Amino acid sequence: MIELAHRLNEPIALTSANIADSVSSLTINEFESLWPKIDLVIDDSLLTKDRTGPTIVDLSVKQQDHIQR
């Protein structure tokens, strides 16, 4: 993802692949029903076995990143 962001020279916004209040997906097959609504899927295989929510990092202030969650 870092290499992709560097090549694009733009930040990348990522969302979790699930519907609000549903279980987070660990593989692309777990959210197959959403594929028609998705522009791009980057499959990095099984990233983690943890279904907790994603990490949110505030990058709005240059060189002062802050982990929100």
Please give a structural write-up.
This protein has 69 residues and is largely without helices or strands. The chain has one domain (1-69). Helix content is 10%, strand content 6%. The protein contains one helix and two strands. The protein has one helix at residues 2-8, and strands at 57-58, 66-67. It has a two-stranded antiparallel sheet with strand order 1-2. Strand 1 (57-58) and strand 2 (66-67) form a beta hairpin. It is globular, with a radius of gyration of 14 Å. 0% of the residues are buried.
Strand order across the largest sheet = 1-2
Overall morphology:
globular
Count of domain modules: 1
For the secondary structure, the number of strands is 2
| Poorly predicted sequence stretches spanning 5 or more consecutive residues | none
Give the amount of beta strand, in percent.
Answer: 5-15%
Largest sheet: 2 strands, antiparallel
Mean pLDDT: 75
Q: Give helix and strand order, one letter per element, not per position.
A: HEE
Helix content: 10-25%
- The gyration radius over C-alpha positions equals 14 Å
Distance between the termini: 19 Å
How many DSSP helices? 1
Structural class: little secondary structure
Could you give a short description of this structure?
The protein is largely without helices or strands and 69 residues long.
